[in-house]
Specification:
- The chain is of the alpha/beta class.
- It has a single domain, classed as 3-Layer(aba) Sandwich (Rossmann fold).
- About 40% of the residues lie in helices and about 10% in strands.
- It is built from eleven helices and seven strands.
- The strands form two sheets. It has a five-stranded parallel sheet, with helices on both faces.
- A hairpin with a 2-residue loop joins strand 4 and strand 5.
- It is globular.
- Bound molecules: thiamine diphosphate and magnesium ion (MG).
- Magnesium ion binds next to strand 4.
């Protein structure tokens, strides 16, 4: 476990943590493959969006991939994931076929939500992905609700509830943290602190810049994590999930990360310097994992090149699949739409 994880509750109760996790060839290869898929898929999605092949919004996750790579190797299969609108990488890493993810971006019936969700609303029931939410902070309460349902049913699943640094300034975070702690809900709250909410830096939104400290007012154990390191992310998720599964209630992770691209595709990026972006790219998780694989002789340059080619081919296939798929037919319009027959406010 990373030295950075120094969490304790305000009462001084230390959180149990795994010391000195050792990682081998298999996990590094998995991280490399997962990061490659997320990155190549989104590089392509960015190009296609610019060419107006699909519409709506498009928020890329490029730069932040170590978070999901580290999460997925630490989680149990039926754990739950919920996030905001920067959500293309989540289904990919959880195993939704890339062609279904691409078709969803294109709004086609073969997409993972039958083309009705689009870029900001990825769901996959079979892989316990509960969205994809466009209202900043909304998923914080929904994530706690999922955890409540699991606890109520007596399950041992953990919900990983992702939010941005901008979302933590929403009031709903405080109500949710309080209730989740009170009811000891099985949820890991994950702040992906990429330093900006659109063009507004963390420093400008509040006097509290160390966001993990937001948990401490609710006696929620919390820890800062280096989000450019798959090892540190994996360790942090492992420890947080173990704490939650032991019945002790929520855990808060503040994962420090960075998005290389703009907030969305229409962001001129005038709020930050080129040097700042370059500085983070020097710590790029894909490069770090690649160097480790080569240094340990767990893979050759040629093998990594082959992996990259295979991933690019998979992404190209997903584009072909999406472009050849039809749009949802008209009679799909009212299917999967929630309605309540006795809703009292409907007037004929
Ligand atoms: C309730 C609400 N207010 C404002 C917006 C507009 N908005 C969309 S994204 C965003 C910034 C959120 O930033 P952050 O939580 O840091 O996530 P990031 O984009 O960095 O992943 C804002 C203000 C919104 N979607 N919902
Ligand atoms: Mg942000």
């Amino acid at each position: 476990m990373s030295d950075q994880i120094t969490s304790s509750t305000p009462k001084g109760k230390k959180v149990k943590k795994e010391e000195h996790m050792v990682f081998g060839k298999e996990i590094y290869l998995r991280w490399y493959k997962d990061i490659l898929l997320m990155r190549r898929f989104e590089e392509k999605a960015g190009q296609l969006y610019t060419q107006q092949k699909f519409g709506g919004f498009c928020h890329l996750y490029i730069g932040q991939e170590a978070i999901l790579a580290g999460m997925v190797t630490a989680m149990q299969k039926d754990d739950r994931v919920i996030t905001a609108y920067r959500d293309h990488a989540h289904p990919l890493v959880l195993g939704t076929p890339s062609k279904e993810v691409m078709a969803e971006l294109y709004g086609r019936i073969t997409g993972s939500s039958k083309g009705k969700g689009g870029s900001m609303h990825f769901f996959d029931k079979d892989r316990n992905l509960f969205g994809g939410h466009g209202i900043v902070g909304a998923q914080i309460a929904i994530g706690a609700g999922i955890a409540f349902a699991d606890k109520y049913r007596g399950g041992d699943q953990v919900t990983y509830c992702f939010m941005g640094d901008g979302a933590v300034r929403q009031g709903i975070l405080h109500e949710t943290f309080n209730m989740a702690m009170n009811w000891k809900l099985p949820v890991v709250f994950v702040i992906e602190n990429n330093d900006y909410a659109m063009g507004t830096s963390v420093e400008r939104t509040s006097n509290v810049h160390e966001l993990y400290k937001l948990g401490l007012s609710y006696a929620m154990p919390a820890a800062p994590v280096n989000g450019m390191s798959c090892e540190e992310v994996h360790s942090a998720f492992t420890d947080a999930a173990a704490h939650v599964r032991s019945g002790e209630g929520p855990f808060l992770l503040e994962i420090k990360t960075y998005r290389y691209r703009g907030h969305s595709m229409s962001d001129p990026g005038t709020y930050r310097s080129k040097e700042e972006v370059e500085d983070y790219k020097q710590r790029d998780p894909m490069e770090t994992v690649r160097k480790k694989l080569l240094m340990e002789k767990w893979a050759t340059e040629a093998q990594l090149e082959k992996m990259d080619k295979e991933v690019k081919a998979e992404v190209n296939d997903s584009v072909k699949f999406a472009e050849e798929s039809p749009y949802p037919p008209l009679d799909e319009l009212y299917i999967d739409v929630y309605k309540q027959k006795d809703y009292p406010f409907i007037k004929d």
